[in-house]
Design goal:
This protein is α/β, with parallel strands linked by helices and 424 residues long. The protein has two domains: 227 residues, 3-Deoxy-D-manno-octulosonic-acid transferase, N-terminal domain (Rossmann fold), CATH 3.40.50.11720; 188 residues, Rossmann fold, CATH 3.40.50. It contains 18 helices and 14 strands. The strands form two sheets. The chain has a seven-stranded parallel β-sheet, sandwiched between helices. The longest helix is centred in the first third of the chain and has 25 residues. The radius of gyration is 22 Å and the shape is globular.
């Protein structure tokens, strides 16, 4: 199956390169550093380190606490972080700078994978979440490099797709030394796809181990004072284009009843910043951009955060958080960041990327699900008018996040055992 997969991948390579070119029309970063995607780059200063693969921005954020601990705990094992997307690459640079070696992950072609492994010569390969690349796994295992799939998850939606290729996924999963699943449900789905029982464990979700920057709450409070501490603020994080139309229409309805309300809009992708601001203006809202560098005035109705890496700061500012990617079938984004800050969380109907966590938040009374724009408008008016309910939801959110922590410690234990086995 792997040989068939490889042949098909070679045939599809022109389409893969075309995909990168098309994506580069919106994000020029996709046109840069193509040689790295074929395993051609100057290697890290020292071999024998740990590679952490975090495909995109979300995975980098989830892996940040783990990477930071690896840097401190294993100073003799230089950390290499690979990503696939430019936004993930930018985030690695912003967070870690020169503390890690960063390069794009190779395309899953045998030659590119072998060149990558020959240049980095890692002692351990840590794959975040579920990136099943058959050739990477095969050649790493053949070179004696143990693979840990950390924070592993398979959504219900992805499970059906993977199951159609079970022979291939089982072969890849069989190359992993250890598979650390986020939940019992994820472990069951991985087991059904061929993950060896004896290598599978449940460590919990690393995203519960949210590391809030020191002084974040105080910074958020200072921004609120500058904006007007009494005005109701909704922070809509990681939003996408089609759901923004629904969100903006709902917020216009809110403004009719609460004229001083403010929408903080944080689009998911940087190439959409300008379009999101234009959509807000077209919806009749008075828009101020983060990049303007001015205090958001009382006359503003929509504050567009046209900068990367600032979502946590603005979650700390808001009264209510709406987590994007959930009003359209994208699957939702990280609900734990606003929850860790004690913010009531609103999500749409599509949360299959975070189904278990979202269900836990809803069951705990920390989050509410809205079916559409009308429900979003009604729920916002209810929450803006009831500070006690917001406080109860926020406290429940903080408590749930605290109760779920510990995945980082358990994942580090798995890494320690694998490194000990390698070095003897």
């Amino acid at each position: 199956m792997r040989r068939l997969y490889t042949a098909l991948l070679y045939l599809a390579l022109p389409l893969v390169l075309l995909f990168l070119l098309v994506r580069s029309l919106r994000n020029p970063g996709y046109r840069a550093r193509w040689s790295e995607r074929f395993g051609r780059f100057a290697g890290p200063p020292r071999p024998g380190g740990i590679v952490v693969h975090a495909a995109s921005l979300g995975e980098v954020n989830a892996a940040s606490a783990l990477i930071d601990t690896l840097i401190r705990q294993y100073p003799d094992a230089p950390v290499t972080v690979t990503t696939f997307t430019p936004t993930g690459s930018d985030r690695v640079g912003d967070v870690f700078g020169a503390a890690v070696f960063h390069v794009y992950a190779p395309l899953d072609l045998p030659g590119a994978v072998r060149r990558f492994l020959d240049r980095v010569r890692p002692r351990l390969l840590v794959i975040m979440e579920t990136e099943l690349w058959p050739n990477l796994y095969h050649h790493a295992a053949a070179a004696g490099i143990p693979i840990l799939i950390a924070n592993a998850r398979i959504s219900e939606r992805s499970f059906g797709r993977y199951r159609r290729w079970r022979a291939l996924t089982a072969e890849a999963l069989g190359q992993a030394a250890r598979i650390a699943a986020q939940s019992a449900g994820d472990a069951d789905r991985l087991r059904a796809l061929g993950a060896p029982e004896e290598r599978l464990t449940v460590t919990g979700n690393l995203k519960f181990d949210v590391s809030l920057p020191p002084g974040l709450a105080e910074e958020g409070e200072a921004i609120r004072v500058a904006w007007g501490a009494q005005r109701p603020v909704l922070v809509a994080g990681s939003t996408h284009e089609r759901e923004e139309a629904v969100l903006l229409a709902a917020f216009r309805g809110v403004l009719a009843a609460v004229p001083d309300a403010l929408l903080v809009l944080v689009p998911r992708h940087p190439e959409r910043f300008a379009r999101a601001a234009q959509a807000a203006r077209a919806a009749g809202l008075n828009v101020v951009l983060r990049s303007a560098g001015t205090v958001c005035p009382a006359t503003a109705q929509c504050f567009v955060v046209d900068a990367m890496g600032e979502l946590l700061r603005y979650y700390a500012v808001g009264d209510v958080a709406f987590v994007g990617g959930s009003l359209e079938p994208i699957g939702g984004h990280n609900v734990l960041e606003p929850a860790a800050l004690g913010r009531p969380v609103l999500v749409g109907p599509h949360t299959f990327n975070f189904s278990d966590i979202t269900a836990q938040l809803i069951d705990a009374g920390a989050a509410l699900r809205v079916a559409d724009g009308a429900a979003l408008e009604a729920t916002l008016l209810e929450l803006f008018g009831d500070a006690d309910q917001r406080d109860r939801m926020g406290a429940a959110a903080r408590d749930l996040v605290a109760s779920g922590q510990g995945a980082l410690t358990r994942t580090l234990e798995e890494i320690g055992r694998l490194l000990t086995a390698v070095t003897g």
